[in-house]
């Protein structure tokens, strides 16, 4: 398990990881994307 954490940490410090994190932060700030994510999580949980 610690090896997985180490690989994730290594990825987040890489340029590609930083771009991915920045993209996720931008998406999280967008109200439409938040609504999409909320709807998807609701469907996955079995609620509509």
Question: How would you describe this protein?
Answer:
- This protein is mainly α and 48 residues long.
- The chain has one domain (1-47).
- The protein has helices at residues 2-13, 15-29, 31-45.
- Helix 1 crosses helix 2 (15-29).
- The longest helix has 15 residues, at 15-29.
- The radius of gyration is 15 Å and the shape is flat.
- The model has no long low-confidence stretch (mean pLDDT 91).
- What is the domain total for the residues? 1
Using the alpha-carbon principal axes, give the shape: flat
* Straight-line distance between termini: 35 Å
Query: Structural class per helix/strand content?
Result: mainly alpha
As a percent range, the share of strand residues is under 5%
Largest sheet: none
The total of helices stands at 3
Secondary-structure element order, N to C: HHH
Which segments are poorly predicted (pLDDT under 50) over 5 or more consecutive residues? none
Number of strands: 0
Write down the overall mean pLDDT. Answer: 91
Q: Indicate the percent of residues in helices.
A: over 70%
Radius of gyration: 15 Å
Layout of secondary structure:
Layout: H1 2-13, H2 15-29, H3 31-45
Helix pairs in contact: 1-2
Biased composition (Low complexity): 37-48
Region (Disordered): 15-48
